[in-house]
Amino acid sequence: MTDDAVTRVTAGLAEDERIAREAIDPDRPGTHWQWVTDETDTPVKPGDEQEAMEHQRISLRTVEHFPSGHGTELPAFAMFVEEGEPGALRHAAHFDPARILGRYVPAIRRVLEVCDAIDADALDGGWRQGHYGDKADEIREALASIYTDSANGTEEP
């Protein structure tokens, strides 16, 4: 089952990366979503979104701006609070492509590398034998559980 778990994690991470990369302009790395006041186009300080929503209209916008047909630059995409629940918009901002590509995917890959190192140590008669014998496999299975659901309703990502 461990090979299946690693396959699911690896495929899921590749899909996460693909989706995150499609959401950004590769020439502009970094944060790609920000809360902005609608009246002044002023960015809202991270963590202050709820308070800002109580006093004014704000929207979640991409940081990237592109030329419009009117000689001005506009965000590539904007979501207004009226169009969705504030919680859903906070979720979208929290899982910014920069976070997925810069921290999430590399961290999970590193955990898989550590699991491989634990297995290698066990082959050499190291500490994994005995009480800790299945911990690396348990970690792989736990990571694979992230990818048990998919848009197509199967167990495969």
Please write out the topology.
Layout: H1 2-22, E1 33-37, H2 49-55, E2 58-62, E3 65-67, E4 73-75, E5 78-80, H3 86-94, H4 97-123, H5 135-144
Antiparallel strand pairs: 1-2, 2-5, 3-4
Number of helices: 5
Strand segment tally: 5
Read across the widest sheet, the strand sequence of neighbours is: 1-2-5
Radius of gyration from the alpha-carbon trace, in angstroms? 21 Å
Describe this structure in words.
The relative contact order is 0.17. Helix 1 packs antiparallel against helix 4. The strands form 2 sheets. The protein has a 3-stranded antiparallel β-sheet. A two-stranded antiparallel sheet has the order 3-4. Strand 3 and strand 4 (73-75) form a beta hairpin. The chain is α+β, with helices and mostly antiparallel strands and 157 residues long. It has helices spanning 2-22, 49-55, 86-94, 97-123, 135-144, and strands at residues 33-37, 58-62, 65-67, 73-75, 78-80. The two termini are 16 Å apart. The protein folds into 2 domains: 2-24 and 97-147, no CATH class; 33-94, no CATH class. The chain contains 5 helices and 5 strands, in the order H-E-H-E-E-E-E-H-H-H.
